[in-house]
From TrEMBL:
The lineage of its organism: Bacteria, Pseudomonadati, Candidatus Omnitrophota, Candidatus Aquitaenariimonas. The chain crosses the membrane at residues 20-42, 54-77, 98-130, 136-164, 185-218, 224-252. It comes from Candidatus Aquitaenariimonas noxiae. This is DUF7847 domain-containing protein. Keywords: Membrane, Transmembrane, Transmembrane helix. InterPro entries: DUF7847.
Amino acid sequence: MGIMEIVKKGFGIANKNVQLLLVLFVFNLVGTFLRTPFMQAAPTAPATANLSPAIIIISILLGLIGVLIFGGVLGSLKEYIQNQKAQLGHIMQYGTKFYLRVLGVWALILAILIAFTLVVAFAISLAMAIKNLVGVVILLAVALIVSGVGLYVFILLFMAPYILIADDIGPVSALKKSINFVRGCLGKIVSLFVMLVLITVGIGFVVGVIAGLITLALKGAAGQIIVGIVASAFNSYVNVLLPACFLLIYLVSSKSSKSL
């Protein structure tokens, strides 16, 4: 199955799974309206005013709930891809089943990326501290190389959450499988990623224009509410389309789904 066919099939899956879209829409909408009052700082307030304890707590809670939703959506998408149907009640079932494992695999990926970031930051800070030109060049080169390696490692690990749910395995096994899988079809995955980014940016631009027109036509709370609804609908669709495509490319390549 080629990239275009995967994307086309991904759109078809997103269009047919209205229940998943509604669940994500409600979650995104609630999150938007919970954060909005705290994000509207006064014009004279410093930028750090937005980082209030309330917004931090809300963001953490939404993130933890988001892990539950992510696992539920991916599990339901896998069920739909394999059986051509998915039940709304299974979202919570999949979410709770995979919750700790999804949280674990994201934590491992984050820890690995933080390690690379710290090395790069240390090399750059050291380069700024010394006065030897050769040393500065070497340290900056090291920072650049480590950044490149870190990006490559991230790409290798990118499929781990999808593989974890597709194969019902643990975080470490998912990371190992992701590395082997991505190495085998790196070009295909990067091409799919780039295409999905372009599609998302294109749709997002249109949605942004619509939101801008709404804010011009409707002032105050009414405009903000409608913009929040439009943005939540867009994010919900993207959050079904993208996982569907990445699940498809793995299931097709690994032949994990008999229906494909």
